[in-house]
What we know:
Blueprint: E1 3-7, E2 12-17, E3 22-27, E4 34-40, E5 43-47, H1 50-57, E6 67-69, E7 75-82, E8 87-88, H2 96-103, H3 112-120, E9 130-132, E10 135-138, E11 144-147, E12 155-161, E13 165-171, E14 187-192
The structure holds zinc ion.
Amino acid sequence: MKKEYIIEACNGKKIEVKKDQLITIIDIEGSQVVDFFAEASENPDEFLSTGVTIDCNESLKLKIGDIIYSNLYQPMFKILADDVKEQDLLHPCCRPEMYDFFYHNGANHSNCLDNINMNLKNKRALIHPVNFFMYTKINTDGSIIVKKPLSKAGDKVILKALMNVSLGIAACSVSESDCNGGKTSPIKIITED
Length: 193
Ligand SMILES: [Zn+2]
């Protein structure tokens, strides 16, 4: 069965996905980062881990065919297609303290940590999502710079679920930097068998 979900700018959603279903993540307007997190449907103590994903793939970036792993080193998703081929595995979800650190405006600022926690009905102290479409340039000296995403309107990533999962997805709330191209916009998710 095919289902479509719109996640409005600066919002989040929980989406249930079964093993072997396909998940299409669409940047509707372009240059919008998608904070993509998941927990195992039967066990929320098993969840998506960017650190384990970096470890298993021996890479700071994802490419088509790569696997996204759980904290228990189990395969959660396989990347089947990627129009942009830039994503970020380094940054945690934005949160009020991040907005305070950089922009002094954290009070009442929408943020991906709260948007994912509220939808998954959990209170994780820190969430490290896969940040699809986020363009973090990694320099040879180890320094990083966040640049405007390369994604254009309609660009997409397609994943296959390798276990039953509850997705916690947010359209990132940062409008203060190049992270989302200086604005925030909605995203679309399609799940299908
Ligand atoms: Zn965010």
